[in-house]
Amino acid sequence: MTSHRDQKLLPTIIGFLLFFFSTNIFASNDSVLDSVQNTAEELIKQQISLPEKGELKIEAAKLDNRLRFSSCSSPLAASLPGKQTLSGNVTVLVQCPTENWQLYVPVNVQLTLPKVVAAVALGRGMVLTPDKLSVQMIESRFQRGSSFDDPREIIGSKVKRSVKAGEMVQARDICLVCRNDSVIIRAGTGGLNIVTKGKALSDGAIGDEIRVQNTKSRRMIDAIITAVGEVTVKY
């Protein structure tokens, strides 16, 4: 027979048990959501090869703890639905095969790379010197065209298109060899190297093939730009 004192304690005991079990349920649910986030982030890490000197930041969105999922008795599976670029906001599908539930997880991906930017405003015709350039980490999704990661690659080149301070310097903005510039022509075969002077007949960047006129012979030749003010003829 239950005493009057026991009857008074009964609501307190029930309340304690409800609090204890509900706390465990919430803790378990938080653990499931943490696993979902970690699984989504890990999938992105596996998909991206980090370039040298690059920095990668991957962060899954915080999930609403009002979501209720049972613990998964098998490893969570993750995939990328549809065609997505792995930069900016990416959606990852995380599934629990055994408990038959799934969740789409937003993941923010930031891959930054060191790129040469204008330290000051660059005007057309300006010759690039070390004090006019700096290096900043730029998100890969904002990079367009051919760019540079070392200022030494373009010191001495001329500006063709104005570049604002802080903007990335791209190959189209400059010419390592500009039309009518005097250039050094290097040619060689069988261990014999010849160096002479010429005039560039068009603009170009590293690796571009341009027409050059040999100053001495007046002969027109095709040559590859190999450095600022320098071209190489390949036989």
Automatic annotation (TrEMBL):
InterPro entries noted in UniProt: AFP_Neu5c_C_sf (IPR036732), Flagellar_FlgA (IPR039246), FlgA_N (IPR041231), SAF (IPR013974), SAF_FlgA (IPR017585)
Record-level GO cellular component terms: periplasmic space
Localization per Swiss-Prot or TrEMBL: Periplasm
Gene3D superfamilies found in the cross-reference section: 2.30.30.760, Antifreeze-like/N-acetylneuraminic acid synthase C-terminal domain
GO biological process: bacterial-type flagellum assembly
Keywords from the named record: Bacterial flagellum biogenesis, Cell projection, Cilium, Flagellum, Periplasm, Signal
Domain SAF: 114-175
Assigned protein family: Belongs to the FlgA family.
Protein name, per record: Flagella basal body P-ring formation protein FlgA
